[in-house]
């Protein structure tokens, strides 16, 4: 009997999913392990999808996505980042952020190449690199006082003749860390110096609490990079518009990468669903007030969780500037999966174990605070009691 290809056998299971599967077999669990808000998709977006279906947006589209959707994404970059993009050649619409990430990785790595990943990070980047038959080199972000940083010395030391790409996520899942202007410039300079592709996962850029005004996005790397730079930006409708189940995202990149990703799309999903793309256009055009309301609520939730955790001896929890996660580190914790499993069994609170996020993640756990207060408050109360 033929066996499963060894290259895919080597791709590890998601340890967030492993914990979630135990939780899903239980009743009454307060679920904070997945990276999604429990708010439903706003009504105006659902109505836009229904209208699009009624208007006949049920056929195949271009591999790069509907021209109108790409124009809407370009308008979004012009409005929020002052960046001009050519919708015809610099944007591809994808069936989710993770599919954009997968395409970006496939376009940049040959089998046997090395990809660098700043961690702790959402595990899908490293797993996608392995699915491309390339090697992952994870570079942990050290916590210095109140802030995570980038270890540029470790990045330099990790370069091999096969290193072709560096992936980072800002705002970070799970750290909530946001790259500063200097750090972004440092990453871009590093990539230019070593002739690497720089993949920036910016799916949380609208969930930012440290801008001049709530609602200001984290400045995109596209503001610094030229359109000739080897830079790929990954994005998604999931987080900003509560559209996780819709599977809609996009990629912005140098023209040759977009041309290739567009072609590859044909063989993966052909294109993102047609009426979903139309609903995404409406989200971009009309989503600001709803997004602001969500941000206000998220910021309050973040502060509630920080306050609850900060008084606990042996728990360090930096204040995150973006995304919707806290990543507390517990002194002496060496098995975060077992910690989360016990927490689940004894208190019915479901969190994600730090070990799921790669190098630098063990010893911590991730809380997704994008939950309703009726879930978050009892969850924090049980968690703090358990920790004490
Ligand atoms: C850092 C990061 N990138 C990309 C994604 C992908 O989002 P989606 O595939 O739902 O668009 C996620 C989802 O959790 C994420 O956390």
Please describe the topology of this protein.
Blueprint: H1 6-9, H2 15-24, E1 30-31, H3 43-54, H4 67-81, E2 91-94, H5 97-108, E3 114-119, H6 124-131, E4 135-140, E5 143-144, E6 147-148, H7 152-158, E7 163-169, H8 181-193, E8 197-201, E9 231-236, E10 249-253, H9 255-268, H10 274-286, H11 288-310, E11 315-316, E12 325-326, E13 329-330, H12 336-347, E14 349-350, E15 352-353, E16 365-368, H13 373-387
Parallel strand pairs: 1-14, 3-4, 3-7, 7-8, 8-9
Antiparallel strand pairs: 2-10, 5-6, 9-10, 11-13, 12-16, 15-16
Helix pairs in contact: 2-12, 3-10, 4-10, 5-6, 5-9, 11-13
The structure holds pyridoxal-5'-phosphate.
Structure, explained:
With 388 residues, the chain is an alpha/beta fold. 41% of the residues lie in helices and 15% in strands. It is built from 13 helices and 16 strands. It has helices at residues 6-9, 15-24, 43-54, 67-81, 97-108, 124-131, 152-158, 181-193, 255-268, 274-286, 288-310, 336-347, 373-387, and strands spanning 30-31, 91-94, 114-119, 135-140, 143-144, 147-148, 163-169, 197-201, 231-236, 249-253, 315-316, 325-326, 329-330, 349-350, 352-353, 365-368. The longest helix is centred in the last third of the chain and has 23 residues, at 288-310. The chain is globular and about 55 Å long. It starts with 5 loop residues before the first helix and ends with a helix. The model has no long low-confidence stretch (mean pLDDT 96). Pyridoxal-5'-phosphate is lined by residues 35, 96-98, 122, 169, 173, 201, 203, 236, 238, 244, 249.
